[in-house]
Amino acid sequence: MSTFADRIIAFNQQLEFTGSLPPGIRIMNPFKENELALAVSTQFYRKYYNDDHPRHLILGINPGRFGSGMTGVSFTDPKRMVNQCQIPYPGPMAHEPSSEYIYEMIDSFGGITKFYNQFYIHSVCPLGFTISRGNGKEVNYNYYDMPELQEAVYPFIVENIKKQIDLGFETDICFCFGTGKNEAFLRKLNMKNEFFKKIIALEHPRFIMQYKSKTKQDYIAKYLQEFSKVTL
């Protein structure tokens, strides 16, 4: 009988976008482009998801370059993968503020094993995007940042939310990271497809770290309060 680990790893391996993107936008698929991301994430899921316990989905926006773009695990940068998850990362170290916040929150929740035993974090769009600026530098881009991009990836998003639910996660409540465009998009999508009975949106970790870092403990308390609605 397969475990969550087996199903999540298989889901990541099958991720592939075959549609057309607007000019200047590049798809970022760590599981096809980065052997290290697939290997490290496989170790992670075998360590924390090698069971069939009931879990709830948390959906972020889409992968970023310095978090799951490197490790294959949402909101987990190489630094947290090594120091918190105790999984070797034989590549360049990187720091992502969102990852720092998430693991501080997880520590307040009761630790990594307890948290991942009850939750699974991925994204509304499971693959990321980048755009090249005038200086040639590549930066993260969100699926909703351009109407043409959102339209291009819409079928891919719907297909892969269904696939994530089919991995065996609970559908009474889904948590959403992002109280702006990500929440609005997911709520509209949910009204049409009835994926979840209820969506609870929380401020995105990046927003908290960039604009509200002085009060991040208040946001951690809010996260824990909302998560308590589905935990024992």
Automatic annotation (TrEMBL):
Instruction: Provide the transmembrane region boundaries.
Output: none
Q: Which Gene3D superfamilies match?
A: Uracil-DNA glycosylase-like domain (3.40.470.10)
Report the SUPFAM superfamilies cross-referenced here: Uracil-DNA glycosylase-like (SSF52141)
- InterPro entries, alphabetized: Phe_SMUG2-like, Uracil-DNA_glycosylase-like, Uracil-DNA_glycosylase-like_sf
The Uracil-DNA glycosylase-like domain extends over: 47-227
- Could you tell me the superkingdom of the organism this chain comes from? Bacteria
Instruction: Report any Pfam family annotated for this entry.
Output: UDG
The name this protein goes by in its record: Uracil-DNA glycosylase-like domain-containing protein
